[in-house]
Amino acid sequence: LGVFGFLNIPYKFIDSGNVKSSGFGDVSFGIGPRFKIPLINNELNSLVYVGGNLPIGNNDSKPPLGIGRWDLRTGFFGTFLTDGKKYEVDFAFDYTKTEGNNVSDEVSGGIVLGGKLNSFLRLVGGFFMNDKLNGVNCGDWSVFGRLNFRHTPKNSLGKKLHLELWLDKLLDSSGTTSPDDGYSATFVTRLNL
Fold first, then answer.
1. What is the dihedral of CA 121, 28, 3, 109, to 10 degrees?
2. Given CA atoms 97, 98, 100, 101 in this order, what sign does their dihedral have?
């Protein structure tokens, strides 16, 4: 049992067919308890958190880089690591309580599988989804495929600093606020406290 905190600072490149944008996205943060459960020669790490989004991304760009509001988030992450930490399965579930009465809350989650490429680089791939609840966009949803390259530098920060590249491709969506098509690349600097 321990304490886990994170700070995600994304830089995004978004291509939605006819429109493109790039720049810093909204910063997300969270804190909560961390559990490590040994399973024979493997281990399961789970993290439950509360946190939020800081609206620093440009929500006037087309497509938008941010959402232009403060949101509260809660959720959990989990990582199942095989013996020697060579392979992993990561899963996540988030609930976002949005600011404003008519703005839809969001549920998102996903799963990725992969493993170690070398001592400091990992590659995982899978999917994630987003579904809007209540509000004016209730029922809008989207599903994305994701590749995630994660680099943990070998320096004094050790396992605390992660540099990640997320490559996302829209697979399917429905609703007026859901994208029709597109790719995005997001660089994330994550500091685990």
1. -70
2. negative
User: Nearest-CA neighbor of 115 among 90, 79, 88?
Assistant: 88
Indicate whether 62 pLDDT > 80: yes
DSSP class of 11: E
Q: Which residues are within 8 A (CB) of 167 and not within 5 positions of it... i.e. 6 or more apart?
A: 146, 147, 148, 183, 184, 185
Q: Are 66 and 59 in contact (CB under 8 A)?
A: yes
97, 62 in Cβ contact below 8 A? no
* Beta strand extents in the chain (DSSP E only): 2-15, 20-24, 27-39, 42-54, 71-81, 87-97, 105-118, 121-133, 141-151, 161-174, 183-192
Residue 104 CB neighbours (<10 A): 19
Q: How much is the average pLDDT of 148-152?
A: 88
The whole-number pLDDT of residue 143 equals 94
> Hey, what's the torsion of the CAs at 116, 121, 127, 129, to 10 degrees?
130
C-beta separation of 46 from 32 below 8 A: no
Q: Which residues pair with 167 in a beta bridge?
A: 147, 185
| Alpha-carbon span 166 to 156, nearest angstrom | 25
Q: Is the peptide bond before 63 cis (omega within 30 degrees of 0)?
A: yes
Mean pLDDT score, 13-25: 87
